[in-house]
Design a protein that fits this description.
Two copies of one chain form a homodimer.
Chain A lengths: L3 H21 L10 H18 L2 E6 L6 E6 L7 E7 L19 E3 L2 E3 L7 H16 L6 E7 L7 H9 L8 E4 L3 E2 L6 E3 L1 E2 L1 E10 L5 E2 L10 H10 L22 H8 L5 H8 L12 H6 L3 E10 L8 E2 L2 E10 L5 H15 L5 E10 L2 E2 L5 H14 L4 E3 L6 H10 L3 E3 L3 E2 L10 E3 H21 L3
Parallel strand pairs in A: 3-6, 3-7, 7-19, 8-20, 9-18
Antiparallel strand pairs in A: 1-2, 2-6, 4-5, 5-21, 10-17, 11-15, 11-16, 12-14, 13-15
Helix pairs in contact in A: 1-3, 1-12, 2-3, 3-12, 4-11, 10-12
Chain lengths: ~450, ~450
């Protein structure tokens, strides 16, 4: 594969055009009005896999949106790489904050602006083009299987069934996913773990109806005030989470592990400027990288209650609610944390209110072994492509299907993401650098090459 | 006026029919789509005043909705009663919670269900019918002036201008208002004070955009969490308000005053059952009546931030907001409390967020002197009509125009309300007991009679 750069260079405009075609599909899985578009996207992905040379391409129906499958088995003796990605995207709202329309990809300053540009169309499509590249440049070093789903942004609930029912078809030696980010192109990195998730909704009810805040104010518990007090109590003065037992299963990192994480380049002033904050906030005793990558956290994702329209209404609300999620680290368990939260939240509620806790969904934390052949192959590929070794980092986000693959298929995952934290995933003006897109297409074939070599095939 | 009961008895169906006609106008001042209805209501009120015998009836235009004026001057030597009321109503939302349509008055179990049944159409219209009754039964003991506005539910902002520009026309010896409630028909009461109000909106901004709660969670202050902590800190463990200086101007009641307030009949079990709560909540050291009537309070009227739709979104929000209002007691000042709140709220904000405080509106607390001729006249009227003396109570709500009348016209107000706390003002299924409506029409002429007598005319 001496001709990687040359092939990319010769085909760069087409690679970009094809991605733009893919980005023009408004494949929003959360909103039923986009259903025809999501289904068309699946067909487009299937066609592109076929065009690139995949066999047995199938748009596999599920109870929800289809999963696109394709494979190229070159030699049963060679190792098999299962590429996972997703063709669905987050809703584009709030639309008014987009500088250019979310489904009309636009290049500004070397960056592709579009919903899904990075998450995950731009990233999974690199694998399709890298596959084409390998097919046209001496063939595949490994067998390859593609599984591109359409429900990642709504919880991947049908993927679990698909994986359980297709264990033989999905048999592989490693799962390769590009759906995460690097520190920067100057500081390439490889994520070695992901946080798990436990997401719940709480509802606090005070009086049985909205009350006049003058007639009753001061004599009846206000559920918004009580909810505020309950939420406030979930972090202590050092921003430790106060739920009893919450940290019981957390394995403290060794000083060496902590040093490795903190060795990653980090400019606090730049970080704060990017976010527009004057001060950072977090658990006492830990650095930013440790807080986001290695420590469990609890965030209020939404809160509401009472009168939230224009102007003033003097109401003492009957109810107040919040969506609260916790990110979990290795050895914590989503179900256990869900139960600990629920018991604690119910316990701290004063008798003057009633509390209802409803779990939404969860996902288990994962750690990628750094001594595996697959990790080493990724390390070598990046080192060759970027001219420097990747820094191991811990990702703060959650990709629940990684734990699923491990549990159901018995395969570990390599998280070889080429995005950046500044790509505004899930936000208006999502972008992906064209440079990163091409860099990914160049790096992926090297992974296949080294994975084959290191596997001894 | 020996024939009061007889006249009411003979005209009861017509009195009810006319009120029903008035209630059928959806005179919602807050929503511009009802504008033609609000204007028609003003015309209807003017016509009914004329029909009852008022002179100089005028639908007085303002920058907003008109104020209906009418008067009957029988003798310049007699005292003058200025009747204030409002023909506008609160929005009927949420409509789905109404058992019968809000603008189709329906009688169930002796109660009129309709938006405005009690607040304030049912109550001010008693004065129109009592005026008719006096005109038909020996004439007026006092001169009478009516000022019925159409913007009470949206802050009465044009009333202030009208009052300032019409001081001579509005000259009177007392303002008489029926827009409050009694303990019960078995326990008639007279409100001797109203709380003031200071209403503000707060916005807490963390990062400059919504963030992925996995990538950034734990390292950046979450404005919803910070807002919860700030709100939680506004009451201490005894539910005292923690804003420095907040209580400085509060005049503690004497033991006698406290005893008088607590002598009012109160069944805590019934109070809790009506509200559906298992425990009451409030400032330590005070009873329910003291908490709602004599102590300043702070309530969250609304709170919102982050993702509040269906399902789950793992966002770390950029902003969180709340509407917060404080009820004030005599000698506290709305502007001063607004400034104290603002300074405190800005001060307690951690450096990790930015805070914006926006005042909505305010109103001053009022106390009605119980040694005045007008109060004594009201006392005598109720005693005669109900067969027992009224209990003096302190109202928890606010009617900012009462302080306005005192400041601009130099006249005190008598709050002779015939509603009940259970009338669901501002809520679905607002009602007014037919019994209370007739009882009001019977009692009001007695007030005029005794006010004239006690004034020595």
């Amino acid at each position: 594969m001496q001709n990687i750069k040359q092939y990319v260079e010769q085909n760069k405009q087409r690679f970009l055009d094809e991605l733009f075609d893919l980005l023009r599909f408004p494949s929003v899985s959360a909103d039923p009005k986009y259903k025809p578009d999501v289904l068309e996207t699946a067909d487009y992905v299937a066609k592109k896999l076929s065009d690139a040379g995949a066999d047995k391409v199938e748009v596999c129906q599920t109870a929800g949106y289809p999963i696109v499958y394709g494979e190229k088995i070159v030699d049963a003796a060679k190792p098999t790489v299962l590429v996972y990605g997703h063709y669905d995207v987050q809703p584009p709202d709030p639309l008014e904050l987009w500088k250019t329309p979310p489904f009309e990809p636009t290049v500004r300053d070397g960056k592709i602006y579009a919903r899904g540009a990075c998450d995950d169309k731009g990233q999974f499509y690199m694998h399709v083009k890298a596959f084409e590249l390998m097919m046209q440049n001496g063939g595949l070093p490994c067998n390859i299987k593609f599984m591109i789903e359409g429900e990642e942004e709504v919880g991947s609930s049908n993927l679990e069934i698909f994986v359980k029912e297709n264990k033989q078809r999905l048999k592989a030696d490693v799962v390769l996913i590009s759906d995460t980010s690097m520190i920067s192109m100057e500081h390439p990195s490889l994520e070695t773990g992901l946080r798990g998730l436990s997401y719940l909704e709480v509802e606090v009810t005070g009086p049985n109806r909205d009350l006049h805040s003058g007639v009753y104010g001061g004599a009846v518990a206000n559920p918004a005030t009580i909810l505020a007090k309950m939420i406030a109590s979930l972090h202590d003065e050092n921003n430790h989470i106060t739920i009893p037992g919450f940290y019981d299963d957390v394995i403290d990192l060794t000083p060496d592990e902590r040093n490795a994480i903190n060795d990653a380049p980090y400019n606090e002033a730049e970080y704060m400027t990017d976010l527009g904050v004057d001060e950072l906030w977090g658990e006492k005793g830990y650095t930013t990288f440790e807080r986001t990558g290695t420590r469990p956290t609890l965030e209020v994702n939404g809160i509401w209650g009472g009168y939230i329209g224009e102007g003033a209404k003097t109401v003492l609300p009957s109810k107040a609610s919040a969506k609260i999620s916790m990110r979990l680290v290795p050895n914590q368990h989503s179900d256990k944390i869900r139960d600990l939260f629920t018991a604690h939240f119910e316990k701290i509620a004063p008798k003057s209110v009633k509390v209802k806790v409803t779990p939404h969904h969860g996902g288990e934390p994962v750690v990628t072994p750094t001594d595996s052949v697959a990790y080493q192959a990724a390390q070598k590929a990046i080192t060759e492509s970027f001219g420097k070794a990747p820094i191991p980092t811990r990702g703060g986000g959650s990709i629940p299907i990684v734990a699923l693959f491990e549990a159901e298929l018995g395969i570990k995952t390599v998280l070889m993401g080429f995005g950046l934290d500044s790509d505004a995933l899930h936000s208006p003006n999502e972008k992906y650098d064209i440079y990163n897109y091409y860099k990914g297409i160049e790096t992926i074939p090297l992974f296949h090459k080294y994975f084959a070599e290191l596997s001894g095939s």
